Amino acid sequence: MGVEPACPVLLLFLAGIIIWVVEAEVHYYDFVLAEKNFTRLCKTKSMLVVNGQFPGPTIYVHKGDTVFVNVHNHGDYGLTVHWHGVKQPRNPWSDGSAYITQCPIEPGHNFTYEVVFSEEEGTLWWHANSDWTRNTVHGAIVIYPPHGFSYPFPTPAGEQILILGTWFTYDVNKVIKEILRTGKDVPVSDAYIINGQPGDFCACSKEMAYRWQVDYGKTYLIRLVNALMNEEFFFAIAGHDLIVVGIDGSYLKPFTTSYVMLSNGQTMDVLVKTNRSPGRYYMAGRQYYTDNLFFTGYDKTNASAILEYRGKYDRLSSPFFPEKLPSYTDYDSATQFRKRLKSLASKEHPIDVPRNVTTQMYITASMDKIVHNFSAYMDYTLLSSLNNISWVNPSTDVLQAYYRNLSGFYTLDFPDEPPYYFDFVADLRDDSTHPLKGTKVKVLEYGEEVEIVFQSTNLLNASDEHSMYIHGHKFYVLGEGYGNFNSTRDTETYNLVDPPYLSTASLPVKGWLTIRFKANNPGVWAMHCQEGRHLIWGMNTVLIVKNGSNPETSIRTPPANMPSCASYPSIHKALEVSAE
């Protein structure tokens, strides 16, 4: 439950001028993780959820507020909780990235996160951050403008959170545990869901579809969260246009569209005008599939919920379905939608695109495998990599080791470019690059302006879109395209005027993506593909941003109750030595 302190805004009268003084609020929540039975698709299973809810509770704040969340783990898995898209200035201790900023909260233990909302405004989300536990442990974060300030669009008559998710009819965490041991492929989901329900097109689900009642002639705000495990997602509402106004906790130049496409882990704010004939209309979505087209067994569920007008009309007729919802493999619709994303870039919401780049990186994102030669047969382990390095979690979190100057847990040699150059997007059925497994990080000076070009490769003939995400920093997306990146031709297409300001962005299949950001948040921050299967296979690295020149630009001291790396006794000896 959140606690709402009173009197958040004071009015000062000085020389006849009204000055708004905004006092940030402090909120407190308790998250109790425990198993609970849920029935979907005609089958009942037990799964880990927060406070008995699925999706989990929503956190409500205003820009500038701080939230303390005490997480009590009564489940069977050690895990962390991450606050997706929240910058957490100088506070990596509460970022919640397993083995990067903390060790997991073990069953029977608790940990209190301090979540600081600084520049974010709009919709974000929180989720578990250990293996695939986020599949059932997640919820929305609503960040209102500061008290006394309004949206950069007319205040809506109401709002609705729609969380897009993935459903498995069994405990997928047990399956993933075995996959991590064997290195084989992950399972295909049984359905997609909206606010926990598959909707009318799935077995045993027709009467359980999520319903949202609206009044005619109003404008509503929809807060969309892509909480799927692996997929990007198309979404549309039958008969209604959507006005996109925000993404990843930042405002956009509004534009009207018949559909939206959300990268995995992305959030989006859209307005909808209820100006159609009173009736019932499906709010529907399906995955945007970019993997190998020879595989046709991907999840083709049309997840659905119902927008329902109040009033008198024939409620026995079936709801209308969105005719303009793109097909599963509609690359053009996905690309054209992303091209329309532009920052609002107003006086009240300015942008600051880095122009003096001091660090340039060219990072390949690849699917890989390691072949094992046994005496009687050959086998392989699936991996994914960045610049041919497949991430391995250390025995304690990188932040603890970095802060206490402990050696032996990571190395400082993550490369700025791939070890091999070739036609990255050609059909390459074999992997001859021999990926390395390691815990390699990149160190940045405080205040550096960084440009990264991500390049998708087609190793194993398995190019796929990747939802690239950086903890602790948002970035400007300057451009994207298909094919191999060309530093002469493609830089001419960069948007330096009003690029979108994101925390998660799509790297196109067989293509490239360029981002820029300022490394102004000291700490240890993960950079990875958000999609669950790529992340557990190693498409991850870490950026260490060094302290600045004063305490205000340096990492805060750690809280006293950080979760212990109890299963790794070697760390205790190292900590004792560092404390002497």
From TrEMBL:
Its EC number is 1.10.3.2. GO terms for biological process: lignin catabolic process. It comes from the Eukaryota. Keywords: Apoplast, Copper, Glycoprotein, Lignin degradation, Metal-binding, Oxidoreductase, Repeat, Secreted, Signal. Its main location: secreted. Lignin degradation and detoxification of lignin-derived products. This is Laccase.
